[in-house]
Amino acid sequence: MIEAATANAVRTAPPPAPGLPPGDASSADILSRVERIAAGPLAEMAGRIDRGHYPLEIMASLGRAGGLGAHLDRRGQRFDQAIGAMAEVSRHCGTTGFLVWAHDVFGLYLEQSGNPALCGDFLERHARGDSFGGTALSNPMKALSGIESLALRARRVPGGYRVSGTLPWVSHIAAGQYCGALAGVEGADGSLSHEIMFVLHCREEVALRQCPAFSGMEGSSTWSITLKDYFVGEDELIADPARPFIARIKAAFILLQTGMAVGVTQGSIDAIREVEPALGHVNQHLDERPDALQAELDELRQRALTLAKTPFEGGRDFLLEVLDARVQGAELALRASQSALLHQGARGYLMSAAPQRRIREAHFVAIVTPAIKHLRWEMARLMREEIPS
């Protein structure tokens, strides 16, 4: 998954790119800074990223521009700016937009943990893009919904916990990086008493194994992680117990993903408009046209930004709205990306063309946790008022 990298290579932040403004997350021009990075160096690199390059240099630039921390309380809890930045990145490269989401939600975990050991310099370095890490909650989110079994198990020991198990498909990690993970706590009889959430540092004793090649998202640095008696100290605990914490951040976790859907959809509409001068006379007979798609996208964007005003609002109705917006975004990305390929024809079917890449990126938006089927599962359960405790 990582171009020219090995599992034991320690990753550090790349040196600053020339000409980028300093990263002040409170600045009013965050989005314009992100747009310049996305439309410039990121757009030029999108093909390499699709083939497996892990773009930490771009992520570092986005961090300095304030594009990785706007949603944090210490930056004014601007979820609208975070979604907007993620959308602009995803407009040019869906893989990097996914990395931004993974990076953002890890920052969310740290800040919402209330653990002083996690909320200080560690969080600041993460938000600035000086260090990198993602999220390992794909399996736990499905496990807590009753879709699959929890992969990691923990047992209490003096000073913390020992964790063992194997997690597949963990993105935005590498040796020397970190992620947020969750494990079920086993009692002496093997039964689970509760779950813990913790920072998993990819230290020497953590085995990272390459995943099979994906059809897309190869630059996301996605690995399988195996732990054997991995020690989690009190300073590394995000939540103990974890379920109340997950319930509190769940809507925000999912809402942030709308940035990926909005961006991939906008990039697809851009590709349709690109060929209008040459092919509009025949493309007018296609069903999905750019103005109609843009109107739907603008409505979705406004819906997401309205929800972003109260990302931690509790209650069944708010969560249902978030889940429905996430489904709407995934389905719109699928339709728009297919339409872009049909509008562009053979030129869009070249391996070097953005429309065929966005087809694969849109399918990822539809299957990444929570996938469309998972979202509908959750919505059906909420409609029956079977809300997990």
UniProtKB/TrEMBL annotation:
Gene3D superfamilies: Acyl-CoA dehydrogenase/oxidase, N-terminal domain, Butyryl-CoA Dehydrogenase, subunit A, domain 2. Residues 30-130 form the Acyl-CoA dehydrogenase/oxidase N-terminal domain. Pfam families: Acyl-CoA_dh_N. InterPro entries: Acyl-CoA_Oxase/DH_mid-dom_sf, AcylCo_DH-like_C, AcylCoA_DH/ox_N, AcylCoA_DH/ox_N_sf, AcylCoA_DH/oxidase_NM_dom_sf. Residues 1-26 are annotated as: Disordered. One of its GO terms (molecular function) is acyl-CoA dehydrogenase activity. This is Acyl-CoA dehydrogenase/oxidase N-terminal domain-containing protein. It comes from Vreelandella aquamarina.
